[in-house]
Amino acid sequence: MKKNKISKNWLAKKKKDYFFVRSRSLGYRSRSAFKLLEMNKKFKFLEKNISLLDLGSSPGGWSQVASKEIIEGKILAVDIKSMEKINNVDFIKGNFCDTSTRDKIMVYFNNKVDVVLSDMAANTSGNKSLDSYRIGELCLNAMDLAKKILSSDGVFLSKIFMGSVFSEINEKAKKNFKRVVRFKPLSSKQESKEIYIFCKGILKI
Length: 205
Known about the structure:
The chain is of the alpha/beta class. Helices cover 42% and strands 24% of the residues. The chain is globular, with a radius of gyration of 17 Å.
């Protein structure tokens, strides 16, 4: 199939996607905003005076949702890609795995963080197993950072894919957090292996 035909089919599916259309009508930058809205409705972790770190934030759908709930706290978004300004959200362009970016994150909060979000996805290679592994690695790295900077009752919420690294992520989460819940939002495409892992309360090891 020719590339332009694939592109047309992709656009046609987008136009029929309820959450894509609704995100446009409500001014959200991505359909993933509805995933965070749904998960916050279930777990109730976004409050007006908390501090929040949004990893892999661009284009900013999750930061938009957070900024409407957190009106007296601090929100820092981090991504290797640029992101247009969002009111009440500060942004650092960089790789959170790099020491220099991590140092900037630590300086910005100057204290413990209440929530760490990660909706990161690696560039797709066409190999589903490899893509799943890469996303799993991002989740594990984000969890390592979360363990260091979260408050004792803090929340870590991350996208994961069912695949080779899934069991490692699940085991690591249970070793480090008091509560671990796997959840698939209704706004997540049913054919996708994408799910989210919600972790709360740091276990002192």
